[in-house]
Amino acid sequence: MTGRFDHLPHRRAIVSRRALAEAAAALPGDDPAMLRRGLSQLLREALDAGRAEIARRLAATPSRGLEAANAQAYLVDQLLVVLAEVTTQRLYPIHNPTAGERLLLIAVGGYGRGEMAPFSDVDIGFLTPGKQTPWAEQVIESMLYTLWDLGLKIGHSSRSLDEMVRQARADVTVRTALLEGRYVWGDEALYADAAKRFHDDVRHGTERQFIADKLAERNARHVRMGDTRYVVEPNVKEGKGGLRDLHALFWIGKYVYDVQRAAELVDNGLFTRAEYRAFHRADNFLWAVRCHLHLIAGRAEDRLTFDYQREIAERMRYAARPGKPAVERFMQFYFLQAKAVGSLTGLFLAHLEERFAPKRRYGLPRLRRAPRKLHGFTVDRGRIALPDDDFLRADPVRLVELFALAAREVKEIHPLAMRAATRDAKLAATVRRDPRANAAFLELLAGDADPELALRWMNEAGVLGQFVPDFARVVAQMQFDMYHHYTVDEHTIRALGLLSRLEHGQLAEEHPLPSAVIEQIVSRRVLYVAVFLHDIAKGRGGDHSILGAEVAERLGPRFGLTPAETETVAWLVRHHLLMSATAFRRDLTDFKTILDFAEVVQSPERLRLLLVLTVVDIKAVGPGTWNGWKGQLLGDLYDRAEEVLRLGHKQKGRGERLLAKQDGLRAAMNWSEAELAAYAHRLPEAYWIAEPGDVLAHNAAFVARAGDALLSIDAQVYPERGATLVTVYAADHPGLFSRIAGAIHVAGGNIIDARIHTTRDGMALDNFLVQDPLGRPFDEAGQLERLKTAIEDALAGRGKLTDRLRAKPLPRARADAFRIEPNVLVDNKASNRFTVVEVAARDRPALLNQLAHALFLSKVTIHSAHVATFGERAVDVFYLTDLTGDKLAPGARQRALEKRLLAAAAGVPYDEAA
């Protein structure tokens, strides 16, 4: 009871209870209200001074998280004791207390454990022997008011001993809080009585149910927080692999084995000393992060968001390394600790399972069937186990075979086998060149079974990183951006799981094209190995695609691939971003785009492999990164490239495709030859090439309905494209595109693609594909009406468009945590007819509008725009000509264009043209 904080150095520098008590005793006591105010002021000053001292110590030794957490609890202890003494002796003194007028104050929950972050709740409990007396009510009420005056967030309860027992039996949350109950002040005999009642009347015989309740609570929490410990903005307290998981282990250990300190888990055989050291290291680190997080936020904050990560990395003195910023090194260590927490949880639960396995009824002796053998391993209650503790050490190839067997047989691995694999993981390094080990690994990676779960277990045990040291370099490697949701290793393993499900037809409804294409792929092993290696070189500095291809050339032969397979894997890794970059950032109706892409791909098999790799790579980035529009673009690129690769120069020429589209439109509209000719004469040749057949038909019907109107707006949802087609038919004038783009953003839309056309009689016919900020179509009636009104207002000059855009919030909260230098690339080689300009900048609502306005000021014609966003980064690509229809010539004009676009990308203010 008295030694919980004896280890804290120089405790009295945080707060001296003696000095505080003496100062309180010196307060004048004639007027109770004045005494209470004076006491509040005294305690407030002590609280502020103590917090400042703890913060100073944490800044000086930023990794001592447990010491900071203990110090916070120690500070609150001293304040509570002084408050209780003054309240009971001076504000409400009682000279002849009866046995029923005893009072006890205990710390419960995290405060009871002696661990608090700077702005944690202070959870306390008042206990009385029986029904609460009026004196106890006065004391409790007075103390609570004073604590609230201090600005503390108090969680409190007032119970008699019988009420404590009854409520603890009924509610596992109350039981857990009381489990960590710690004496702070009051009647010590009452505390001893309460502890005995809790042990005898609450805990005894309920161990099995408590374990079940805590594990169910843990699983529900993981689902609520996103069931992975590798989300890039983790919750330090509640997330998977966070502090609450460590607390759950301690709670169960304390409930079942009556341990008072985590170190006692070793004495009860639940952890080895090495495992306890890992427990303590993770606990200390996570507490340090949580304390820094509270101090930076100035409030209780447990989510480690991007805007806090960089500052905590600086506070904890992480330094940058070549290719890896300090914040990524800090987060990598964070995820390694979360991974350690996961491993410890599995081992801990294995011991509990052994102890609490169902027993035979009627006291009959339990006859246990001998575990059956499976390729030298044993099967224990449906899980792969080891025949003896030295089984893996005797032949380290078995470290790889264990996980390959788990995948092939679709069985779990016994936690004690996982413990042995974790302990012996370093031996996997000795069999890296062993043909049996590499054959087993290739079977795990590219066999018929889904490899995802077994690879995750192999990674958790540390075997995967030891066997493939290049992979070890990306374990727990985060990418400090808002696009990637997971660490590199988790992303890779998820991509392999998606690939397996795609191959087994489980994603055919969502992804019909890649599901059909994968059945034609001959090089299965190549595809699986390429997915495994596609991000292997991230975090090294330089282009990870080029560096990854070099790794692939080295690892392919080791894994047992032929030279031809190795060459293809290296090519896929080198070009794994090519298809998405072409589909999302280039105009697919420009035939040179397709020719340039096909020239790099060179074979139909490579095209098939690249499509499937691209799809699983994007889907594995995280929820919401895939949508129908991306699928449509990739499908269009695949179809057009496949035609070029299959037919070479025999595919239809430009004129044939134009005539075919016009014939299709005539049939769709039921027009005569004369009607088609009249309509076709109004529109330039580029329009017929650029727009797909269904959009041509929609535009024709819309123009016919519009008649002679000077402004008509139409919006139609395209579910298969995952977007809404917004068509504007208006009298053309300079700056029209920038105004429409701004209006769409004001209405809450994101433009993902735009095609700008001008008829020969001076009308603009512009098609925009629009999504909401979450990547979904604009499909509600209210949204569509707001969209039309915003465009009408912008084109009519009603309201200042720029002011309305600046008032819009960022599309992604906390995007300003990232520094993105604007960049402009001008390319005259990407297209035969257009100058292609690519602008990269931080995403914001006014971006496209400002870029379009800069182009208007540069006196160029926009023919199409293609917008891709990758988290906080936006990449806007424009196909341009000068006003005479020619490409932009290199020289002063191009430099002026770049300068204007860079200013717009950086958000430099400008006055919008009237």
Overview in brief:
55% of the residues lie in helices and 11% in strands. A hairpin with a 2-residue loop joins strand 5 (372-374) and strand 6 (377-380). The longest helix is centred in the middle third of the chain and has 30 residues, at 326-355.
Give the arrangement of secondary structure elements.
Blueprint: H1 11-14, H2 17-25, H3 32-60, H4 65-91, E1 104-107, H5 109-113, E2 122-128, H6 134-149, E3 154-160, H7 161-170, H8 172-179, E4 182-186, H9 188-203, H10 207-225, H11 243-257, H12 264-267, H13 273-297, H14 306-315, H15 326-355, E5 372-374, E6 377-380, E7 383-385, H16 391-394, H17 397-409, E8 412-413, H18 415-423, H19 435-446, H20 452-461, H21 463-467, H22 469-472, H23 488-503, H24 512-518, H25 524-533, H26 544-559, H27 563-574, H28 578-585, H29 591-601, H30 604-619, H31 628-647, H32 654-669, H33 673-682, H34 685-690, H35 693-706, E9 711-718, E10 723-731, H36 736-746, E11 750-758, E12 763-771, H37 781-796, H38 801-806, E13 823-827, E14 835-842, H39 847-857, E15 860-870, E16 873-882, H40 892-905
Parallel strand pairs: 2-3, 7-8
Antiparallel strand pairs: 1-2, 1-4, 5-6, 6-7, 9-10, 10-12, 11-12, 11-15, 13-14, 14-16, 15-16
Description:
The longest helix is centred in the middle third of the chain and has 30 residues, at about 325-355. The chain is an alpha+beta fold and about 900 residues long. The strands form three sheets. Strands 9-10-12-11-15-16-14-13 form an eight-stranded antiparallel beta sheet, sandwiched between helices. The chain is globular and about 110 Å long. The N and C termini lie far apart (about 75 Å). Strand 5 and strand 6 form a beta hairpin.
